[in-house]
């Protein structure tokens, strides 16, 4: 019997007291287990202290997680962030190079929220820093001061584009998704194919054209209560299947 796929889950850095820690959210780790059927391995944000080719050779999949922090705008030639904006330069230095290398190496990749934004930046795209301030765009942030179940409840529809990865998973033309982000795709990177659009036209999902394996990014959070939403589960199951295929091909 073949082993479970080993799925890297990217971490954020966090200062707790005097020390810096590498943390990954519980819901991402659980979704890798119960949605993708994989074995999660937290990937610390140690940038080039980690030998990325060795890491990639060991992994069967990579999940780029969401985070309250924003990608530093110099990575996409954007204007400096407002003072006080949460950043995580160690995470940027780890994930941005890893994304391109993973996709090129045919390692299945799923990017969620910040992870989706990282994918766009890694392939040469740019981000709106405050979507809610862009004329004509909706406010995609979660309602503040509400219980987490309310914050991660389905909030708006997205239109699934015909002929793409999500369509291939049997998703209806329109699905409802949660929305917990202030930033969003401004310029879509070359080589990314739109998979879903919000009512205001914001790109909510893309896939990497011509990728040798599963390579999908979504702006929403399919890891949230993954088993209770068939559309969220379908994404994790397809990701897990691609990771199992990589195990079989070794
Ligand atoms: N900071 C970025 C990305 C938003 C994001 O990833 N939110 C998730 C927060 C916590 C979590 O569920 O992991 C933005 O604001 O656009």
Automatic annotation (TrEMBL):
One of its GO terms (molecular function) is gamma-glutamyl-gamma-aminobutyrate hydrolase activity. GO terms for biological process: polyamine catabolic process. Pathway: Amine and polyamine degradation; putrescine degradation; 4-aminobutanoate from putrescine: step 4/4. Pfam families: Peptidase_C26. The keyword Disulfide bond does not apply. InterPro entries: Class_I_gatase-like, Peptidase_C26, PuuD-like. The keyword Transmembrane helix does not apply. It comes from the Bacteria. Gene3D superfamilies: 3.40.50.880. One of its GO terms (cellular component) is cytosol. Its EC number is 3.5.1.94. PROSITE patterns: GATASE_TYPE_1. It catalyses: 4-(gamma-L-glutamylamino)butanoate + H2O = 4-aminobutanoate + L-glutamate. Keywords: Hydrolase. Involved in the breakdown of putrescine via hydrolysis of the gamma-glutamyl linkage of gamma-glutamyl-gamma-aminobutyrate. Belongs to the peptidase C26 family. This is gamma-glutamyl-gamma-aminobutyrate hydrolase. It comes from Aquipseudomonas ullengensis.
């Amino acid at each position: 019997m073949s082993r479970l796929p080993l799925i890297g889950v990217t971490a954020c850095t966090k200062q707790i007291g005097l020390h810096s820690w590498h943390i990954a959210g519980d819901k991402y780790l659980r979704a890798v287990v119960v949605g993708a059927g994989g074995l999660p391995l937290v990937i610390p944000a140690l940038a080039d202290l980690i030998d990325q080719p060795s890491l990639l050779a060991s992994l069967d999949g990579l999940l780029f997680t969401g985070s309250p922090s924003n990608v530093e705008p110099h990575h996409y030639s954007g204007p400096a962030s407002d003072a006080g904006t949460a950043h995580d330069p160690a995470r940027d230095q780890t994930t941005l190079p890893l994304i391109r290398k993973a996709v090129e190496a045919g390692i299945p990749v799923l990017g969620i929220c910040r992870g989706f934004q990282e994918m766009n930046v890694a392939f040469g795209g740019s981000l709106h820093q405050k979507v809610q301030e862009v004329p004509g765009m909706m406010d995609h942030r979660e309602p503040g001061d509400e219980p987490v179940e309310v914050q991660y409840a389905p909030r708006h529809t997205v239109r699934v584009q015909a002929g793409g990865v999500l369509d291939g998973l049997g998703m209806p033309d329109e699905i409802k998704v949660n929305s917990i982000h202030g930033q969003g795709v401004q310029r879509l990177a070359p080589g990314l194919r739109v998979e879903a659009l919000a009512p205001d036209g914001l790109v909510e999902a893309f896939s990497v054209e011509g990728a040798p394996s599963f390579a999908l990014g979504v702006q929403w959070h399919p890891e949230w209560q993954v088993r209770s939403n068939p559309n969220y589960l379908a994404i994790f199951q397809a990701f897990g299947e691609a990771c199992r295929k990589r195990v079989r091909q070794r």
